[in-house]
Design a protein that fits this description.
This protein starts with a helix and ends in a 7-residue tail after the last helix. A two-stranded antiparallel sheet has the order 1-2. About 25% of the residues are buried. The protein is mainly alpha-helical. Bound molecules: iron/sulfur cluster. The site of iron/sulfur cluster (SF4) has 11 residues, from helix 3.
Amino acid sequence: MSADLIRLNSTLVANHQGEPMIFVKAVNFLTTVGTQVLAGNPMAPPEVQDLRRAACFACPLHDHAADKCRLCGCTGMIWKRSMATASCPDGRWPAHEPGSIGSMIETAQGGSPSK
Ligand code: SF4
C-alpha cells in the first residue's frame, strides 16, 4: 500500500466511526489482491502467518471478534495474512520475502519492518 493511501486511510479512520469508507476498502482490497496475483500468488509460510496473527491480535486497530483490521478495513484477515505480498498498513508486519522469515521475526521483536 502506498504512503498516500495509508495517509488517506488514517484520515478516513478518524472521520468515519473507526473504519475506512467503502470505496477506500475497495481500493485497499484491489491493491492487495492485484499485487498478490501479479506476483504469482505466493503464500507466506505458516510461521510467518502465526507471527502476523500475533501482531494483529496485539494491535489496538484490530477487531478481535471479527478478526478485522479497522485501518485497512479488511475483514478477511486470516486470508490477507496468508498472502506473502500483503503487509500491515500500519507497518506492524512486512511483506514476506521468499526464503526468509528474518524480517518478520525482527518486526515481532520490536524492530522496524524491512520493506
Ligand atoms: S494489519 Fe496491521 S493495523 Fe491492521 S490489525 Fe493487523 S497489525 Fe493492526
